[in-house]
Write a structure and sequence with these properties.
There is one protein chain. This protein has 582 residues and is α+β, with helices and mostly antiparallel strands. The protein contains 15 helices and 14 strands. Helix 1 packs antiparallel against helix 13 and helix 9 packs antiparallel against helix 10. It is elongated. A hairpin with a 2-residue loop joins strand 10 and strand 11.
């Protein structure tokens, strides 16, 4: 018998929920890291803390406005949805980042300045000073840039940096094809051009060394004088002496209006780059994805109108040349421009990225560059603020609440309480799988506030059962049988259930968007369990009760616990009949 009121057949509803449950656990056990446990928050498992010390070009203390802006950007990077449980706080002139777990690399990468510029490649790549001894052939500075001229214009596609040229280079290449600009010999003596010299380092105070801020400022000034000089001889000197294996003092502090001698991110090559043509602030969106044609991960960028027009004009005028994407003064990718990119189209950055690296880079660029450059301290382990005992206490509280709900349902609704128990168990299985997957794919961590949201969700699910069963009782009081009362009671109950859950979901959404910290985690789990309540009631509870109403066994008053209500209905009918006869 098909249910009335246009509802989906109960068997199909149960099959749909079963398919959803199977799909969830297939994702849990056969995708990602395949760990079947949810991630825990700092309060339950501890975490890793890294202190970021701000450094400014002149060695002065950073402004509090800059620190707060950096704090907001880093919070968005690490905690975009507000459910990862990470913390970013301002401590004097420092930012302190604490992330759940023991992944210190994650905490350190959050503080990268991520100042992105797109610069034309004027020369290179040549081997950096730290790799020439390992590869003698790389000492030859006459490396040509590969060029391609596609038959049809195409978006910029990054090419391998040392790819062999498909077309022979011209006999007299332009400076673009040389490692670095060089002076051409002439018959007329020319007075030597002035050579830029590094800025003198500030003198250390008598009997001591420079303080860290002053030393950092001195290092930045010296690096700028050498690597951002407009003098070709100084550029050549910087290129040949640049050691890409050491920490870069210029990271995030290069001047976009000047040329730049920069390392590649793998530390093996050096480029000479022209002044910036596009600033990373002009990026409107950045997404990571896998390029199946090239079998590598890439980051796709879209620019605002000004940046998009600049990029379209530059690519149209420089087909066959290279453009470098520099991140914190390092060359992430130096693609060959294979065709003009139309204004408004996306472009991409490729490199030797893993999926995680591409995602982190996309998030960093998407959420903005920091207004300051930071030096990260060594990571330190932070113990759980509440600990495993609190987790056990929370789980015990949830289990006790669940048992009390089940006992109440069994006492009040008899065997219908078993259907309630089955619905709650299936709901719990779905919630657990979703917690695992959310931790795996969006960094969700389960803390004590989240557990509280889940426990409240159990009570809300039980409320929906009570509303449904009481509507069935109302129909039976009016003289209908259990079989006919179920579909009619469901038609009336589902409107109440949807209304109640809608109010709860709106409250959770408002709390999520207005709150911060662990309160957002509580609101997130509350909203999630509210949605699951609707799914379980519609796809599990209602179909099970409907099937029970068509069973002779479940229709017995001694089984379904509705005998007293049916007796009341019979007495009302007798009273009505007596009144009519009178």
């Amino acid at each position: 018998m098909a249910p009335s009121n246009g509802s989906v057949h109960p068997a199909r509803s149960l099959a749909l929920f079963g398919a959803i449950l199977v799909a969830l656990y297939a994702l849990v056990f056969f995708t990602g890291d395949k760990s079947p446990t949810p991630k825990l928050g700092i309060d339950l498992q501890g975490g890793t803390r890294v202190t970021l010390t701000a450094r400014t070009p002149d060695g002065s203390s950073p402004s509090q406005d800059s620190l707060r802006q950096a704090q907001q950007i880093i919070e968005t990077r690490v905690n975009g949805l507000g459910v990862s449980g990470s913390e970013v706080v301002v401590d004097g002139d420092n930012l302190v980042i604490t992330v759940p777990g023991d992944d210190s690399a994650q905490a350190k990468t959050l503080g990268q300045t991520a100042r992105l510029y797109i610069r034309p490649v004027l020369g290179g790549p040549i081997a950096s000073a730290n790799t020439r001894g390992e590869n003698p052939e790389a000492q030859n500075p006459e490396t040509q840039n590969p060029t391609q001229s596609p038959a049809e214009p195409a978006p910029v596609e990054p090419a391998p940096e040392n790819q062999a040229p498909e077309n022979p280079a011209p006999e007299n290449p332009e400076p673009q094809g040389r490692p670095f600009p060089a002076q051409e010999p002439t018959d007329t003596p020319v007075a030597p051009e002035p050579t830029a010299t590094p800025a003198p380092a500030p003198e250390a105070p008598a009997g001591g060394e420079l303080d860290p801020q002053a030393q950092a400022a001195a290092d930045i000034a010296a690096a700028k004088a050498l690597r951002q000089s407009e003098d070709p001889a100084t550029q050549q000197q910087a290129a040949m002496s640049l050691d890409c294996s050491v920490a870069d003092p210029l990271a995030g502090n290069d001047d976009p209006a000047l040329p730049l001698v920069a390392c590649s991110t793998d530390g093996t090559s050096v480029y000479l780059l022209g002044p910036s043509i596009i600033d990373g602030q002009q990026i409107t969106d950045a997404t990571a994805g896998f390029n199946s044609q090239q079998s590598r991960y890439e980051v796709s960028l879209t620019f605002d109108s000004e940046g998009s027009n600049t990029w379209a004009q530059f690519t149209a005028a420089n087909i066959g040349q290279q453009a470098a994407f520099t991140l914190d003064s390092k060359v992430v990718s130096a693609p060959v421009i294979q065709g003009a990119t139309p204004a408004g189209s996306a472009t991409s950055i490729t490199g030797n990225f893993t999926n995680t690296q591409a995602t982190e880079l996309a998030n960093t660029l998407k959420y903005g560059s920091l207004p300051l450059s930071f030096v990260a301290s060594e990571a330190e382990t932070v113990s759980a603020t509440l600990g495993f005992a609190s987790l056990q206490a929370g789980l015990i509280a949830g289990a006790v609440g669940l048992v009390l709900v089940l006992l109440y349902c069994l006492a009040y609704y008899r065997m219908l309480g078993l259907l309630t128990a089955l619905s709650l168990v299936l709901s719990g299985l779905a919630v657990y799988a979703i917690m695992v997957l959310l931790g795996r794919y969006i960094g969700y961590t389960l803390d004590l506030a989240g557990i509280a949201g889940l426990i409240i969700g159990i009570g809300m699910t039980a409320d929906s059962f009570v509303v449904f069963f009481e509507r069935i009782k109302d129909e039976i009081r009016e003289g209908r049988s259990f079989r006919s009362a179920v579909p009619r009671g469901w038609a009336r109950a589902r409107r109440t259930i949807l209304s109640g859950n809608a109010v709860s979901f709106i409250a959770a959404a408002v709390l999520y968007f207005l709150a911060v910290g662990q309160v957002r985690g509580f609101a997130f789990t509350l909203g999630l369990t509210t949605i699951l309540d609707v799914v379980v009631v519609f796809l599990v509870t209602w179909p099970l009760v409907h099937l029970a109403s068509t069973s002779k066994f479940w229709s017995k008053p001694s089984v379904n616990g509705l005998g007293a209500i049916q007796q009341v209905a019979r007495e009302r009918q007798l009273a009505a009949a007596s009144a009519k006869e009178a």
